[in-house]
Amino acid sequence: MIAFENLGFNYGGGELLSDVTLRLAPGSFHFLTGPSGAGKSTFLKLAYAELRPTAGRVSIFDRDARMMTRDDVALCRRRIGVVHQDCQFLDHLPVATNVTLPLTVANRKGNPQDLTALLDWVGLGKLADALPPQLSGGERQRAALARAIIMSPDVILADEPTGNLDWDMSLRLLTLLVELSRMGKTILVATHDMNLIRQAKSQLAARVLRIQNRRVQLAGADL
Ligand SMILES: Nc1ncnc2c1ncn2[C@@H]1O[C@H](COP(=O)(O)OP(=O)(O)OP(=O)(O)O)[C@@H](O)[C@H]1O
């Protein structure tokens, strides 16, 4: 679904990622770990063509990211839902409008029943008309997840989605990701939270990628 072949990346200085070869197979669930500044957010950005590799290749849905035009990138982004580290909303618009923004941008009309079901599923049914500044951290992350999946993407990339959440809220978010995985979505979650990873591994066959010395490698079973 998304494949990295001998990928290298730098922002203009020294190499940040080097010789990365791996594949996110359809329906797989991966965590991405590594020290702060190792390049986790960068790796996610390469996976959704926000950044282009400086060496090697990234294929997204079998297309070489370097060859993609802006329109190609826009089309492929419809199949990839991204939950950003610092989820931003339009604060003057209600949660429901924020969640449906990707549909608006794509000029697609959503079904109001689907929106209600989605907001209920993430536990925000009663907050559809609230404004983003009124949401708690956990509610914001769940709104961000709802927005990321409103287009029914095949792939979900989440950057530290539980970074500022307490354990109960983290578990709630994890449950949603596990359910999405069971629906067949391909999922990659960057996180520092080893407890979250252990919890996920008790529920499904999640694999752990670790960035170390500029390489991204599969971690062993010992966490
Ligand atoms: N646009 C940019 N231009 C130049 N350097 C950047 C840019 N974005 C990130 N970096 C640098 O690249 C390195 C990796 O950053 P990145 O955000 O990918 O790390 P991370 O592993 O996600 O970190 P954290 O866990 O702290 O979020 C850092 O040293 C960062 O300062």
Description:
The protein has two domains: 1-79 and 154-223, 3-Layer(aba) Sandwich (Rossmann fold), CATH 3.40.50; 92-152. It is built from eight helices and ten strands. It has helices at 40-47, 70-77, 95-99, 101-105, 112-121, 137-149, 167-182, 194-201, and strands at 2-9, 17-24, 29-33, 55-60, 63-64, 80-83, 155-159, 186-190, 206-212, 215-218. The strands form two sheets. It has a six-stranded mixed beta sheet, sandwiched between helices. The protein has a four-stranded antiparallel beta sheet with strand order 2-1-4-5, covered by helices on one side. Strand 7, helix 7 (167-182) and strand 8 (186-190) form a beta-alpha-beta unit. It is globular and about 45 Å long. The two termini are 26 Å apart. The structure holds adenosine-5'-triphosphate. Adenosine-5'-triphosphate (ATP) binds next to helix 1.
The small molecules bound here are: adenosine-5'-triphosphate
Strand content: 15-25%
**What CATH architecture label of the largest domain applies?**
3-Layer(aba) Sandwich
Alpha-beta classification: alpha/beta
Task: Specify the number of helices.
Answer: 8
Profile the largest sheet: 6 strands, mixed
Give the CATH class of the largest domain: Alpha Beta
Number of domains: 2
Shape: globular
Radius of gyration: 17 Å
Beta strand count: 10
